[in-house]
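To assess whether ligand presence alters the predicted conformation, the chain was also submitted together with MGD. Input:
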Amino acid sequence: MIRKDGQLREASWGEAMDLIVRKTKEIRQRLTHHGIGFYTSGQLFLEEYYVLAMIGKAGLNTLHMDGNTRLCTATAAAAMRESFGSDGQAGSYTDVDYTDCLFLVGHNVAATQTVLWSRMLDRLAGEDPPKLVVVDPRLSDTAEKATVYLAPRIGTNMVVLNGIQHLMFKNGWIDQDYVSKHVIGLEDLKTKVENYTPQRVEKIAGVPARKLEEAAEIIGTTPSLLSTALQGVYQSNQATASACQVNNINLLRGLIGKPGSGVYQMNGQPTAQNNREAGCDGEYPGFRNYLNPNHMRELADLWNIEYAKLPHWNEPTHVQNMLNYIANGSIEMLWVSGTNPLVSLPNLPRVRELLTKSDLFVICQDIYLTETANVADVVLPAAQWAEKTGCYTNVDRTVHLSLQAVDPPGEAKSDLEIFLDYAKRMDFKDKEGTLLIPWKDSEEVFEAFKTMTKGRPCDYSGMTYKLLTGGSGVQWPCNEKNAHGTERLYVNGQFFTDIEYCESFGHDLETGAPYTKEQYALMNPAGRAILKAADYLEPMETPTDDFPLMLSTGRRVYHFHTRTKTGRVPSLQKACPSPQIEVSAEDAKEAGIVDSETVIVRSPRGAVELPVTISKIARGQTFIPFHYGYWDAPDDRARAANELTTERWDPVSKQPQFKAGIVRIEKCVTHEHGTTPHAKEQHTDVVDAVQKRKMTAENVPDSNKHENHLGFWLSSTVESISHLLFAYDSIIPSLIHDIEIESGLHILQRLTRHIHDLLKVHCEKYRAPTESQHTRASRAILDAAFPPRIHHDRASNPYEALSVLQGLLMYLSYIDGFLKALSPAVQACWDASFTKAVAEATQTISRQQAWVSQQIRVKAPQTLVVPSQLLKESLL
Ligand SMILES: Nc1nc2c(c(=O)[nH]1)N[C@H]1C(S)=C(S)[C@@H](COP(=O)(O)OP(=O)(O)OC[C@H]3O[C@@H](n4cnc5c(=O)[nH]c(N)nc54)[C@H](O)[C@@H]3O)O[C@H]1N2
Ligand SMILES: Nc1nc2c(c(=O)[nH]1)N[C@H]1C(S)=C(S)[C@@H](COP(=O)(O)OP(=O)(O)OC[C@H]3O[C@@H](n4cnc5c(=O)[nH]c(N)nc54)[C@H](O)[C@@H]3O)O[C@H]1N2
Ligand SMILES: [Mo]
């Protein structure tokens, strides 16, 4: 369907695909390929993701691609990278059959993975049942069966997990032999958890000390331990940091890679794992490390494209940032496949506003006409799982081949066909001019994918469609060495942390800043797992007088996500026809609310209107299932949980905190003549507005809204460097009494002249204006760095000389700031020689910073300490 005069009208595939190709080229013309973004799914097939990843990274050379997996398992992947060096689940589902203890953190398996739960129930009801420890603020169906159930306040996982580790250290429940051989970071962790005593945990998280001790004893002494984490961790406060603590617990006990023992950083969607392997969200294909040039070169060679053209100046753009780019007008085309963001993204009021911007061209590729399809410019009807062939991989690395069982309805096409068709129409070529994406069916794509994974953790190279047919799947890695796949990873205590092999160098868990290769080399894990420690930090939003309750959102067993499928199954719909908010009996009483009463729930973002269910949820906490959008809403009440949720995300995984916002409950006061207050839904109004705008998908927005920012920035960079040259002219003469400094500065000046000339060359090509916009700022900083008094003979005073050096360091870091921005920007222009020049300039500035820092180190003690009367006394 194509939007014409405001309405979606049927069109042929040829018309729709031609339009998409025309749009792509037109946007490339005006905005470069970085004006286009892709937002995909955890529900397509492996082969479909791989083609999409190549369209984005090798065809259009853009970083703007993410999946709903960002909302789902971004933290699973992130936590495994931090602890084990790469994505790669330790265990196997067979571990459920052997384990002595199941430890489930924020994972309501009874409602969300019913097949796995059946397997667990078999064990729980059988002989020699395992212990079950559950951590969930809500007495879920899973928690009902627990041996020990911990109900922390929403957002306090870190406190509970640190508390358990505290008790493990205190009671010596640690496998010293394993730990000494196979992990690093023990001392840091021990120090970090030292003050998480049961009493402190009780105070912050509300978990009784005795309960915590019971749980820790079970976990600390069980002969085997299978731990899992899911959305109660990933979508809550300190997601990655908490998920890492779950890994830590198994590592401390040495209970990983052994029958009955392991960790599942769970996946939610059927093919979230494949999305990550293929590189359609935050990852690179084959779990390659974007900070490792060897990995990136290898990928460029595999695809036979120029190294400079492979986008890798940063990790791929996450969806919240794509929304920000849509907001500022630098992304004008968004291709959505297999996800329904107008129900599932946080803070719907904002998402709605952005996805219906008049200058945004939205493609929606789905099996139904969803809320998102209803505002799109083009709707592509996709075939679903049973109507197409492809592979999917479970959380325990088991790869399955799913064969087409029935024909797709009408003219629907598989996602693979759609993506291949687009690639063909775009005529993407490799560097020799050969077709980049030449495949015709899923098996051909699978063969290419296999080659790409060879030698990586997710090695598929030994698999074929034939091997995958008939049995019950094969677990990767499957290669020459493991012809039938691999049941467990890390069996010999060998992890993926070798510096040349790992998928990531890890992150500062608090700020989210990535570590550099140099920092990683200092840690030198070399195949050992990494114990990552962190302190508890309060959630960003905590209850206030206005919004006294915490909201968490999640699932009911009867529905899947935005209900495009389950909402159409009468028995499921009947079992769970509408959303409701769970509150505790105490909170209900306080608010004067009774069970089943309809209330308005309001957050700083928006409001919904729902009936109340009084449940065994901890006091101060609430829960709303997020399944209900508007495609089949019975009336005009707002009801989508995401009207309320916050867009804040975890600093490392960038996963939104769907279980972390604040709300209040308002009574719906009924007047004599009917109910007044009403949380009215905005979705229908927005769809109407789109239709009334009479817009046509063909519209081309006005073209010249973007200025030559790169040129401006380059001109300011070059100017700042030339100002440094002048500064050297004036400070060198004043420092002639110090021969070492004076001659050093001469060398620095020469280096500076060189990079000035190097960058100047590129000014013309990028039309850098001669006038810089930063002249005043640069002058002001120079004046502050080198106050006029120093320009004269006073610099012979060592104290003043020290000030000159400090000022110089400040000005160098001002220049460095320009270069920091220029570096990824010129890579995004795929300009190899400019990239090289900026890299050299950056290195030269950093050499100067190193020299200045060293001179400061030489001079400071003598200058600052020796003449001091005050210090003399205390030193003696
Ligand atoms: N029936 C059904 N099954 C599904 C899905 C579905 O939509 N419907 N979706 C699939 C997908 S994609 C996913 S990702 C999974 C999700 O599966 P789960 O993660 O099991 O499901 P959720 O209900 O999102 O959240 C799990 C629990 O986290 C708890 N929780 C909330 N805040 C916190 C907290 O701060 N700490 C702790 N420890 N727990 C907290 C909630 O009370 C909830 O019971 O389910 C998959 N399976
Ligand atoms: N408040 C709140 N929000 C949440 C969550 C939460 O717990 N709370 N959970 C988050 C999580 S974990 C997830 S995974 C997301 C899920 O959020 P979404 O991805 O938006 O949910 P779905 O309804 O599964 O959307 C999948 C879409 O793909 C379509 N589809 C199905 N099969 C195919 C196919 O083969 N091809 C194509 N092209 N389309 C197909 C379906 O019709 C549907 O429209 O929601 C997230 N949002
Ligand atoms: Mo998910």
